[in-house]
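User: Show me an example of a complex going from sequences to structure tokens.

Assistant: Sure. Here are the input components:
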Amino acid sequence: MSENETEGSYERRTFLSKLLGGALTVGIVGVMGAIMAYLFPPERRVFNPTRRRMRVARADEIPIGKGKQVLFDGEPVWVLHLKGGWIALSAICTHQGCIVHWDEKRLMLNCPCHAGLFDVNGNVLAGPPRRPLKRLRVSVVRDEIVIGPGEG
Amino acid sequence: MNALARVRELLRAELRQQAPYHLNLWHLLGGLTLFLLFLEITTGILLMVYYRPSADEAYESVFYIINDVQLGWLIHGIHGWGAQLFILLVLVHVLRVYFHEAYRERELNWVIGVVLLLVVGAFAFTGTLLVWDQKAFWGIDAVRRVIADVPVVGKAILYFLWGGTELDANALLRFYVFHVGLLPWVAIGLVMAHLYLVSRQGIFHRSGVGAQTSGQTYGDVALRGLLLVVLSFGIVLTLAVIFPVELAGRADPLVYQSVKPAWYFLPAYGLLKLVPKAAGVALASVGVLGLLAAPWLGRNSWVAWGLGMLGIAIIALLAAYGWRW
């Protein structure tokens, strides 16, 4: 075996081992990337059938008289800040299922579809709806407004 | 950096060691099953992140994994198809060892191997139920009916495995505990013992003289092994992409659905169709005992070969019968 051949086979060996190492690295990085993608839950739909609570906002973010509409378990909910405290009401009108609006000036919820009118406790004031709006539990946990299922 | 260089040097020295000349691809099968075990454990842990083992949520959570989680369908598919290939390779490995008569002077390791085969079967069995779809439910419920008919111990077995005589939330939780909490430890412990005995007793060679050198090093063997690992991962990935695992609708305990078992349980299924249930269970147990006792039954090469062929023929016929029915 001449000096040159040994040199050549050594270079080929280094090249092949680098190729192997590179291919393995690419493979491992790809797999790790896929695992990371998998581990981040999709934001669009988080699977949480037995959700116990949802943080709505920090208490000082909603001044008195204002309300915030949020989605809780796929259901639109009005969280209202009143003088007497906080109230969470389902935003689904009990008449035909339209989404009710919060009227800040008159402190009422009105339905744009058939002019249903509800007071801040969800009771019917006027219009075709017969049942009151569903109430949810709401409480202030430290400085955060939290809602949960069940009668409020 | 010094430590890293040292590790590399040790590894290199190890890989430069001469390997026995008779070492070929057949001998890599066992190692390949080890890779698939690793793949199953990894994807299994990933599935546990989103899976919920309660009858109310199990199906929905699997549905969520497949349809909503990024690459969830792929992880689930790899877990399912990986299990199929795992079982196939374990079976081929058993046949390889049997027909090479590599169990000679390695009786204990053969027994450990057979127990591992049973553990793999238990993994497949318990894992099937977890998706909680119609297919899983009625497949496992058919087994419940068989066990319920076993005299004397049937009810006790059901209470132990199912947590009662019904297939319900208790059973699901128990199967989950077995699948992810108990069996992996049993499997890992047995695999460690299996590998320890292999390294202790050496790779079996018929003629007994292994001094001949063929110039192949353990590095060559390891590279071939790596190629097989990449190849099998590629096969699993391809199967998972082309044939995604699908759900068969949420389990409804009041709507019966006739279900064929997976291919690896077909022989047992065929046997139970052929003879009364209690007799079938007894015969299957005899078969397992026979497999455990193979090193002692097959002391003579011709007897071993004959018994092996007979066993394969019976299992193949039972599987064919179970498949046709």
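The lines above are the inputs; the final block is the predicted structure for all two components together. The mean pLDDT of chain A is 85.
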